[in-house]
Amino acid sequence: MEDLSRFKQTYFDESAELLAVAETGLLNLTPGAVDLDEVNAIFRAVHSIKGGGGAFGFTDLVAFAHEFETVMDGVRNETIPVSNALVDTLIRANDVLGQLLAYAREGGETPDGVTGGVVDKLRHFLAGGSGDAHAGNAAPAAPAAAPAADVPAYPDDEDDEAGIFGDAMAALDAARAEAGESDGLTRWTIVFKPKSDLLLSGNEPTFMLRALRRLGEATITCHTDALPALQAMEGEQLYLWWTVELVASGDVEIEDINDVFEFVADECDIRITANAPPPIPVPEPAPRAEPAAPAIPDPVPVAAAPASASAAPAAAAAPKADAPRRPAGGEHAGLTSHTIRVDLDKIDRLVNMVGEMVITQAMIAEHVRELPQGEFQELLEGLEQLAQHTRELRESVMSIRAQPVSSVFSRMPRLVRELGGETGKEVMLVTSGETTEVDKTVVENLVDPLTHMIRNSIDHGLEGPDERERVGKPRAGTVHLSAQHRSGRIVIEVADDGRGINRPRVLAKAIEKGLVAPGSNLTDEEIDNLIFLPGFSTADKVSNISGRGVGMDVVRRNISSLGGRIGVYSTPGEGSRFVLSLPLTLAVLDGMVISVGEERFVLPLTNIVESLRPKPEDLHGLVGQCDVMMARGEYVRLVYLHKLFGIPHAQGDATRGLVVLVETEDGSRLGLVVDEVLGQQQVVIKSLEANFRRLDGVAAATILGDGRVALILDVAGLREMSRHADHAGTRAATMAAQLAAPPAALPAPSA
Amino acid sequence: MSNSTALATVGAVRTDVAMVTSAEEQYVTFTVGTEEYGVNILSVREIRGWTPESRLPNLPPYVRGVINLRGIIIPIFDLRARFGGGATDVTKRHVVVVIQVGERTRGILVDAISDILTIRRDDIKPPPDVEAGMIDAEYLSGLYTADSRMVTLLSVERLFATETGDVDPAKIPV
What we know:
The structure holds two protein chains of two kinds.
Chain A: H1 2-28, H2 36-55, H3 59-76, H4 84-106, H5 116-126, H6 167-180, E1 185-194, H7 205-215, E2 216-223, E3 241-249, H8 254-260, E4 268-275, H9 306-311, H10 322-325, H11 344-369, H12 377-401, E5 402-404, H13 406-409, H14 412-423, E6 427-432, E7 437-439, H15 440-461, H16 465-470, E8 477-486, E9 489-496, H17 503-512, H18 524-529, H19 552-561, E10 565-571, E11 575-583, E12 588-596, E13 599-604, E14 608-612, E15 619-622, E16 626-631, E17 634-640, H20 641-645, E18 658-663, E19 669-674, E20 676-684, E21 698-703, E22 709-713, H21 715-724, H22 731-739
Parallel strand pairs in A: 6-8, 13-22, 17-19
Antiparallel strand pairs in A: 1-3, 1-4, 2-3, 5-7, 8-9, 9-11, 10-11, 12-13, 12-20, 14-18, 15-16, 16-17, 18-19, 21-22
Chain B: H1 7-10, E1 24-32, E2 35-40, E3 44-49, E4 63-69, E5 72-78, H2 79-82, E6 95-101, E7 104-110, E8 112-120, E9 140-146, E10 149-154
Parallel strand pairs in B: 2-10, 5-7
Antiparallel strand pairs in B: 1-2, 1-8, 3-6, 4-5, 6-7, 9-10
């Protein structure tokens, strides 16, 4: 039983993927330009979910999936025309399927009415209802159902009842049986019962099953009833037999099937029957796929089989082990999978261990450097190699966590579709670079910012179709979403061809809100960047799309918490482009190690502009409060790290130490006064919060080559600190502030 | 809680955990100056020699800093400093008691480990009525007499909970 639950888990995991496949396919489904491959993929996805569900006895799920599948089958055979209404219903059906899976996963009963109007609508299409007139006339096949009308929502639907799968289903079957002849498919049941010495003649049943799959959609059930006890089992003997439900295109003849078994005809019992469209395989609660036929050691006589073959819950109930893996023969069925599923925790542990190894290796290297030169040549060489292996190991391990951004991008078409509907705008989403890989944590954290940016583009950026036409643009606006690698970072762009940022209005709004002093003279770029300020919104009315109290400031915060930056480029009348630049992983960071007194810190390389040693004449006091430095024609405020952090024995004099010029996410610059810059290094980011808590000016921690902990500085935080604190020993105040401080700037990697 | 008898046997050091009954608990005790403290052995993850810490900015002196404990970063608290004795002048012989509180790990700098005591719960006396608002009292879960020594038992859940931002220590049951 424990085994079964493991298979269930696999089934649910795979179903989630299949749902996503189906959704992607459905969103691509456009009336008039139906891609048959796409349709087949959707069909297969639904079919696989159904098949696996049958094996576990999820009756409601199977029944619903069957309806869904039947309609998809109709689409595939072009008996059901693709209309927008159909696509909407199918998307809805996919959602319902997801819900049913969720219920099945929780192991609870499916609440009444979940499948609601969706089943009605599906049947309506099945019964030949044209999509456009989908209001009013209920499907003839489901006479009991109330008119489906325009009831889109499912959980609160009340016009359906649990009995939906009862009488109505039978009526539907009848309808389908009639229609079945004309759907251009032939259906076969093949009972393939090899003699137990088949293997001795060098034949391999898998090949035949595979060949059957090539003929069409094959649902293969393996019967294990003849399996002897383990002790009695002999390696050369074959104890299994199969039934295959084959749905093939109309031109597949019985000879084609016979051909498959040509070479083994003498060593097998084969029975091939042509079927009418199969009954709905709502399985009896027999999830373990016990064959209906009693266990007969001898081959089943050909003539005696029909009853048992059709009684076996073959279509749905695949053998327990095989069912979740590949329940129905898609193109990939039969091939050995080249991927494995691994618990994320295990990978995290691995990443952590490799991080440790990198540190230990660096530690050894440091010690070895202190050994007398020339005496330990072999040790040095070995160490060199170790360093190289470690580097490769780390890269490989990191790449395990890498995921193509398509997993995020693929969610966007749906968003665009819905938003287009809500706003009445015509929107085309173009994506590129979906295969670009990034660390899983980064991918996961991209969903919210991207969702918001696309919302923003559609709601604020794009004009309505009429307005677009007036200004000579195509009626449909385009949102371009792209990803690419650029110098060790990933760059993601969201570009639209809308009206661009309305600068006068943005500026007026900013002045009105007191974010900018009246009469300020801002550059276009500066005005564009105002939209990232907290509390900024130009929306005149709060729409339910973007007026959710979430602004671009949240997007920027999300992005900077990932160690990234966001920029906006806009041309009035031509559109806006938001550019995200993100690190490929959150686990390591390119940093500059600096020292202040006896302490060492790491500054993220992305923040550093340059480091320089100022001449005394470059330094100035500003109204006696703080120091500024002239750097490349600009005055930059100096922040003395030793004062800010209360570090004793530090250099303290900028002209003797160094000034590291840093830039925060919003482009403002600071000069950090440090003692020394020790060098650039990749560091493994470690959480300080896992066991302690957030500290002002500190993003996270890391472990240096000598095993000591160094803090990774948070430049934006340092700027805030230096603004608020008087640099003097106001420890009590900062302590209190820190205790009340909001959560961290850098996400905490698992410790 | 008023039971103060049976001093004869309870002070003995017992290392075999199997002999601990349900009415008993084991405590690791350690010294800070002349005082002896104890924490429940179940929360002690390891005891390690002193390794130099990395300082954390702008924190009270009893937050010594952080160390690398096999890849995780844990804070080190100076118990002497916390109880008003000034920062410990560490030597290689000082000890860090690594304790686990829920998911979180932290280290406590003490002078030396002294004992492992098996203590009957009934023999733990409540801490004396200390002045309200005296923060140190939050950490105390009871007092115990072992061979005429007084051992102050500390509540690990409350110990440095404020400093690590865990929870309001007042809400943690003793």
